[in-house]
Amino acid sequence: xxxxxxxxxxxxxxxxxxxxxxxxxxxxxxxxxxxxxxxxxxxxxxxxxxxxxxxxxxxxxxxxxxxxxxxxxxxxxxxxxxxxxxxxxxxxxxxxxxxxxxxxxxxxxxxxxxxxxxxxxxxxxxxxxxxxxxxxxxxxxxxxxxxxxxxxxxxxxxxxxxxxxxxxxxxxxxxxxxxxxxxxxxxxxxxxxxxxxxxxxxxxxxxxxxxxxxxxxxxxxxxxxxxxxxxxxxxxxxxxxxxxxxxxxxxxxxxxxxxxxxxxxxxxxxxxxxxxxxxxxxxxxxxxxxxxxxxxxxxxxxxxxxxxxxxxxxxxxxxxxxxxxxxxxxxxxxxxxxxxxxxxxxxxxxxxxxxxxxxxxxxxxxxxxxxxxxxxxxxxxxxxxxxxxxxxxxxxxxxxxxxxxxxxxxxxxxxxxxxxxxxxxxxxxxxxxxxxxxxxxxxx
Amino acid sequence: xxxxxxxxxxxxxxxxxxxxxxxxxxxxxxxxxxxxxxxxxxxxxxxxxxxxxxxxxxxxxxxxxxxxxxxxxxxxxxxxxxxxxxxxxxxxxxxxxxxxxxxxxxxxxxxxxxxxxxxxxxxxxxxxxxxxxxxxxxxxxxxxxxxxxxxxxxxxxxxxxxxxxxxxxxxxxxxxxxxxxxxxxxxxxxxxxxxxxxxxxxxxxxxxxxxxxxxxxxxxxxxxxxxxxxxxxxxxxxxxxxxxxxxxxxxxxxxxxxxxxxxxxxxxxxxxxxxxxxxxxxxxxxxxxxxxxxxxxxxxxxxxxxxxxxxxxxxxxxxxxxxxxxxxxxxxxxxxxxxxxxxxxxxxxxxxxxxxxxxxxxxxxxxxxxxxxxxxxxxxxxxxxxxxxxxxxxxxxxxxxxxxxxxxxxxxxxxxxxxxxxxxxxxxxxxxxxxxxxxxxxxxxxxxxxxxxxxxxxxxxxxxxxxxxxxxxxxx
Lengths: 444, 476
Prior knowledge:
Number of strands of chain A: 13
Strand content of chain A: 5-15%
Low-confidence stretches of chain A: 1-9
Helix content of chain B: 40-55%
Mean pLDDT of chain A: 93
Strand order of the largest sheet of chain B: 4-10-9-8-7-5-6
Number of helices of chain B: 17
Oligomer: heterodimer
Strand content of chain B: 5-15%
Radius of gyration of chain B: 23 Å
């Protein structure tokens, strides 16, 4: 054996971005993922494993997609009178495939019950909404500036909006006293907060329908937010990634509709983010878009999208799928129905276990209130309970603190990323856990 | 107007340069052998269109790869849900095998050290984010790919300091030029984080010599806080000798000879970038990668790749294709044969027009010497000539100034993005132009004409860059 040479030199320094923790992946939230990866539930081979309920995926409508592909093979192949392979393989124009942009615009209109119009020339394509949100942040704000984001919010925003951009998130605190709705007061407080920290506020970023709340924002609140950003002369980004997952179409109001009703006055401050990862269940295909009413933003975003273009192979597939109106009409309708059914199932199941949830109407998850079960009404109390649920009940759910919720005890629980049978089992485990807890309380 | 960020309003994206004029003119009037034989022939686009038939025939024989099937069974669901930034394992394995094959298996790559990105555009930017702070600099030999100004600098705030190369020694990197660049950076108060090279070179079309590679490795050996990035995007297009030598081979050789001081960490400071856009001709599929032996770089870059993942649909297709070793062996050999032949046609066509180019053995373009056609050794004269070539000759080629070349008169001319017939047409036109202008060269161009031309150019270029013209994705 050779002599061991000690590596006494320090490894070369990387950038401060590279070594920062702003990617957020060392938070306790990710411990749940680890536990699941190490012991994943399988109905046959590992029935006592951890059930993944922390993953907001939509797995309820794949059969519709698979059927489409079977019946329309030209969408996933080339030639035969359609796009040639050569043409498709060479296409790297950051404007994006026109047929795809048109199909996307029309799909976005359908989801909104045709209550708003989208011009395909304003659509910028990005590899996922993750890229779209980061890109918009680069465009709308400088390092050190602030975006106001209502809590609770998607944990990924800490990385997507802040990491490489150097922009700050200042929370707009919402709480259960009014079902976590955004109020003008909360907006003003957040704005003042940012100012007191010497940060220039550049935009308000909302997710509508909300993740993790699972509710579509009400019209009056949207109007208030729009008025607020107009008064402050800042931007509004509306991440509508879950817009197709609203259980009843008339319950979702997009900021696009409000703008239309205002004849697009002052619209250049508004930008909508969308993606096919949730509504169509295609997170692997990396399909995101930015829709902006601001010409300069569209032009700049397009140029920046060079860093994050969608594979032309995938654009070709989805152009075909989304321009098939009978497919999209049917898909939207059935997907909604199935999600609603799942939602009803989980709400009932939790109710019968003595757990209340926020009344939701959208998304792939519900916002569960376990605050009565906390030993301590603190973040630590919440994490203790979360750990119990992870290790004893063997369910990976998302603790509210990972979503920056200011009230301890709330959890996001996903219901669309598993079979109905698995969901039944998860609900049973929760019922048993709650029954045991009751018994323990009585005994104590 | 609501304020946008400085990034949004600055010009570092580089798309207002007069270079894009050629693109616009081509788009307005594109050549078509049947419908528009007098149109502009695109020779500014470094695409490889020579081997699509090989890809198409493979696809026809392997329908599962594009049909979301594996062994006849549907894996659509799994692919649709697969968004792990670690990448599809089978694709990473196939890709590293392919990279090794391109290098004659003289080196191998570990799939755990590769990070997948949506194109090498994304990989290059990601490396800048990982290795440098805003305001720090990388040294790049000129001439270089115009896109680097955007890719390396725009959102990262990193600076590029040129290593000036010139025709006196075929644009090779010298120790003197390297040291001078370092001094230039210091004078500008810029901390140098490393050197970045493209090997084979864009726009030169040449492979780097062993001595140049050793020079660079020596440089970062001396400067222990510096990195070396080697963009090897054209590594599969080396069609004649000298053979391609990857920086990884140099490292391996030195390691084998135990040339490194034991405490050196040089392997952790060398990073390779690759892509399938040139070798396989698939720029639309957005398939790029960065390779590093540095675990921290891999870890950070992997997380950053969230902002630019490759579509799982595409990863699967290519894992299948590149996993077919019979196919890759045949493809690489046949592709090189065709590139070599086509390159030969361009060189001889240029020669017939009395034009020489830098002797090259790789890539999809030639570095063409038109200095003798310039009335004066200035960049204005180069721009003038370029405009003539775009408008009168009807060829969109890339002026050396857009590649930051410090010698006027050089142009990059692509040969693999068109049919042989079209190339012939282009050469015919060029010859006619040279004959015509050589005939006029002896007549005195009056001073006033020269000045008039100059002011027309300035006004016109200014008008163009301030108007909202249709952008175009510039190409390598």
